Amino acid sequence: MKKIIFFLTLISLSFASYSQHELPNVDLTSIEGKSVTLKNETNKDGITIVSLWATWCVPCLKELDAINEVYVDWQEETNVELIAVSVDDSRTVGRVKSLVNGKDWDYKVLLDKNNDLKRALNASSIPLTILVKDNKIVYEHSGYSPGAETELFEKIKELSNN
After folding, report:
1. Helix (H, G, I), strand (E, B) or coil at 38
2. Which residues contact 104 (CB under 8 A, 6 or more apart)?
3. How many CB atoms lie within 10 A of CB 11?
4. Continuous segment of H or E residues that includes residue 36
5. What angle do CA 33, 39, 43 make, to 5 degrees?
6. pTM above 0.70, yes or no
7. Rounded CA gap, 11 and 27, in Å?
8. Residue 138 near residue 159 (C-beta atoms within 8 A)
9. Which of 93, 114, 138, 161 has its CA 20 to 30 A from that of 52?
10. Residue 127, preceding bond cis, omega within 30 degrees?
């Protein structure tokens, strides 16, 4: 009986990650030091990618670099925007601005210094990539492997057409 309950719990959790729920309304900080509200930063006319990442997370950096290579094309085709939210803590947050400047990413970069967004999303690992439409989370994916950005773009195109 315990095995059945465990199995049913796993199934319900897996479906929960694809159900639509509101984007948490949390305050974050821009890398320039300004306070911003995440919901006010999202794309009102389309899809927003919100990527939780950190300077010490190699898969995070690989994912953001891979998207950066095709980001202009994605924007032209789907009007998508990307917000890269650093979850670096007080020990490593000082590295964010210089890393971003060295990468020349064309993304909005925000800081989740207190991990308020990470907690609100119940994110247990990074990278965590979510797609937001009309301030609702419509898709989420954790982790990164080469080529995952192609799958992400297919999902963006699908959601853009709805």
Report:
1. helix
2. 68
3. 10
4. strand 35-37
5. 100
6. yes
7. 32
8. yes
9. 161
10. yes
- The DSSP result for 97-115, as a single string, is HHHHHHHT--SEEEE-TT-
Task: Please give the chain's pLDDT, 162 residues, in tens.
Answer: 544 433 333 333 333 344 458 999 999 999 999 999 999 999 888 999 999 999 999 999 999 999 999 999 999 999 999 999 999 998 999 999 999 999 989 899 999 999 999 999 999 999 999 999 999 999 999 999 999 999 999 999 999 887
Residues in contact with 39: Cβ distance below 8 Å, sequence separation at least 6, in sequence order: 23, 25, 135
Instruction: Name the amino acid, one letter, at 44.
Output: K
Q: Based on C-alpha coordinates, what's the Rg of the chain?
A: 16
The total number of residues written for the chain in this structure = 162
Taking the C-alpha atoms of residue 21 and residue 58, their distance in angstroms, rounded to an integer, is: 29
